[in-house]
Amino acid sequence: MKQSIHPDSYRPVVFQDLNNGATFLTRSTAQTDETIELDGVKYPLIKVHVSSSSHPFFTGEERVLDIEGRVDKFKARAEAGKAAREKRASAAKKITRRAVNRSEKSVARQGNK
């Protein structure tokens, strides 16, 4: 490593996963005002929304981790699109069915003459 370009302020810090409460004690330069007592010792606390203990890639579980609601909005748009496609398909079938019925009636009328 090059000298004098890396921070010297590494210290023990606890990272806490907000999804499941898991804590990780590691060294970091991240600054925080919060503290937590772990094994009788006070450490700076940094809260994170996702860590390896709650991320679906690492846990193998499928969970919605989106706090902003973007996933819900995407699913709602997908459902609305599916409903619109089904409605258009139904309308097209109805129009086709009416045209077939009209042509059959027309043929039947011409046959009766």
Count of spatially separate domains? 2
Return residue spans where pLDDT drops below 50 for at least 5 consecutive residues.
none
The quaternary state of the protein chains shown equals: single chain
Helices and strands, in N-to-C order?
EEEEHH
Spatial separation of the terminal alpha carbons: 100 Å
Helix content: 40-55%
Overall pLDDT metric: 85
What is the 3D form?
A: rod-shaped
Count every beta strand, where a strand is a DSSP E run of 2 or more residues.
4
Helix run count: 2
How much of the polypeptide forms β-strand, as a percent range?
Answer: 15-25%
The largest sheet is: 4 strands, mixed
Rg from alpha-carbon coordinates = 32 Å
Strand order of the largest sheet: 2-1-4-3
SSE blueprint and pairings:
Elements: E1 11-17, E2 23-28, E3 35-38, E4 41-48, H1 56-59, H2 70-112
Parallel strand pairs: 1-4
Antiparallel strand pairs: 1-2, 3-4
